[in-house]
Amino acid sequence: MSTGLHIDSGEFLYQQVVSMILRMSDKSTIRPGDKLPSLRSLSRSLKVSVPTVRQGYIELERLGVIESRPKSGYFLKAKLQQSDNMRKPELVTRPREVKKQILIEEVFDVIHQPGSIGLGLANPSSAYPSDKLLARIMRRVLANSGERALTYAPMEGFAALRRQLAARYLDRGIRVDPQDVLITNGGQESIAIALQCVAATGDVIAVESPTYFGVLELIESLGMKALEIPLCPAHGIAAADVRHAIEKHPVKALIMSSSVSNPLGSWQDPNELQQIAAILENSQIPLIEDDVYGELYFGERCGGLARTHTQREGVLTCSSFSKTAAPGYRIGWLLAGRFHDQAKKVKRALSCSSSLLNQWTLSEFIASGDYDRNLRRLRSVLKTNKQRAISLVQESFPRGTKISDPSGGGVLWVELPSGIDGYQLFKTAMQHEISIAPGDLFSPSAKYKNFVRISFGIPWSDRVEAGYRTLGTLCCALVSE
Ligand SMILES: Cc1ncc(COP(=O)(O)O)c(C=O)c1O
Question: DSSP secondary structure string, 150-182?
């Protein structure tokens, strides 16, 4: 057995043991029924402690991958029946008015109820929280800078933070000047500003389907129309579908995820992204890329950005610290390209500026190196939680349920057997103090009535596992009704 564990990889050592055994199982290096190495011998060959290997084996048992047999050791189990793959939704034929605000309001009123198991919220940073580090840094900023940290921030944002954000894009292969960065109140304000720069009431905005409901909420409140472009669970949006959409309809802009989408967790194919950027650039249609999940990937590296592939600065990139550090800080940013001056005007009119203390704290968080250290841990925890959540849904939900296999983020997109209403499951689950998000939130049409979004980006616990099992039982009861 190779000694392939890396102390500095950011992945917990026990998690690396888990990943190694899963890889060996995938490649059939070990087969169902095979005995795994003893704790002691694996700890020797991997040069890690026995408790580390034990923790890895316990995790593999929780995931249903291995079983321990008294006095015999650990054995690889037969693979769980993999649920059917989700299919790409049908192409939609016309733009629609959006009417989702009432449903969004209703769902969010109850999702925030204290005491419930919060599987309805997408707050992945809570799976590995940075609150203590942030609190310490914020106290230090206040102690050192006092009143200076509590005044209005410059409208475009705290200079140090804008510099740091610009520098981080070098790792993703693009040059961004600090002056190109406009700090916003979260990703939501960033998308709101971007939309107002490129479109007006009555315009048609192409969106991915399913899409983050906050985008629909904005389109509705700005009186625009949404045209759905289907998301393929494995590859994201197809360039051919974008071409088709703009040939048939007067599309004013496209909003899409740069790499990891919400709620599907699909991974945008870089070649398709490049083609989409080129098609839109040639047609002079702005592209708003939503990258709030960009750094929460489960693969080897961050996905690409559409702005890498354009010359004429027609891409507006939106991002935020909400998924990677803390949503309560409400700090996001926008790279508005050639719309930068217009974006500044909209920002000033909307909110004047964003919290200086929060920007300063996040800037110090990045400077200390803790932001990146935490992010590595967070990705590792989310990856483990994803496996746990998938196993629980496979175990507990009715036959015919299909589950996404997210490439990042903190949510599962679950297709219930046809005839089961996701909204009804949401209502019933709330009576058991479990929140989920009904699929109907994620499309302007009625496409996803039998879907729900369930979060795994939360601090994992026995109560959360019990919540998943209860959801499965409630769903089975709906089948037999
Ligand atoms: C895909 C996507 N974009 C944007 C946002 C908004 O981010 P923020 O909370 O920073 O406003 C969210 C939040 O859930 C999201 O999921």
Answer: TSPPPTT--HHHHHHHHHHGGGGT----GGGEE
Residue 99 C-beta-side C-alpha neighbours within 13 Å:
4
Domain range for 403: 376-480
* Ligand 1 centroid, distance to 238 Cα (angstroms): 23
- Judge residue 79's burial from the number of C-beta atoms within 10 Å of its C-beta, 0-12 exposed, 13-18 middle, 19 or more buried: exposed
Which pLDDT does position 357 carry in this prediction?
98
Q: Decide whether any atom of ligand 1 lies within 6 Å of the 186 Cβ.
A: yes
**Segment 397-452, tens digit of pLDDT:** 998 999 999 999 999 999 999 889 999 999 999 999 999 999 999 999 989 999 99
Tokens of 353: 């500026």
Domains: count for the chain: 3
Q: Which atom of ligand 1 is nearest to the CA of 257?
A: 1
Say how many Å lie between the CA of residue 14 and the centre of ligand 1.
Answer: 31
Does residue 256 have its Cβ closer than 6 Å to ligand 1? Answer: no
Asked whether residue 199 is assigned to any structural domain, the reply reads yes
Task: Determine if ligand 1 sits within 6 Å of the CB of residue 214.
Answer: yes
Same domain, 262 and 391: no
362 lies in the same domain as 388: no
- Looking at the structure, do residues 201 and 52 belong to the same domain, yes or no? no
Atom of ligand 1 nearest to the CA of 331: 10
Ligand 1 neighbour 355 (Cβ under 6 A): no
pLDDT at res. 331: 98
What's the pLDDT tens digit per position in 65-106?
888 888 889 988 866 444 456 777 777 679 999 999 999 999
Q: How far is the CA of 42 from the centre of ligand 1 (A)?
A: 42
